[in-house]
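Hi Y.,

Following your request, here is the sequence exactly as I used it, all 139 residues.
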Amino acid sequence: MATRNENTTTWIATHPGTILKYELEERGISQKEFAEMIGMQRSHVCELIKGKRTLTKEEYVTEQLREHQEQLRTEVENLSDECLEIQTEAALEAQRRDQLVDEVVVLTKKKSFLETTLRGLEKTVEYFKKTVFHYQVQI
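Below is the corresponding structure, written out as tokens. Let me know if you'd prefer a different format.
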């Protein structure tokens, strides 16, 4: 036969003010400092901690946003740094590409010059061959 578990945990609902009081004490933040940090009147924070006031949705959202603000700021700064690195790399690559294009243009011009010179030399050699052949025939 199955036995009934006698070890049950009883959960007690805790007012957010109690949790806030504990967190402020643990972090060494005064009620006044906390009120300034979240843009709330000190008396409202005091009432919240005493359980005489509840957090509105707007106050809760504001508090959550402030808690995550520094993390988001860090992530945005890291992202900005990465974007700048990528932008710098792209600019360097564009500069390298432009340099290569310039080098290709120079090499193409040199090739064209050399091909023209070679054709001229080939014609000169043919002329001399004909001239030498013509003189050999006459001799």
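Residues 17 and 49 are 4 Å apart (CA to CA).

Thanks again,
Q.
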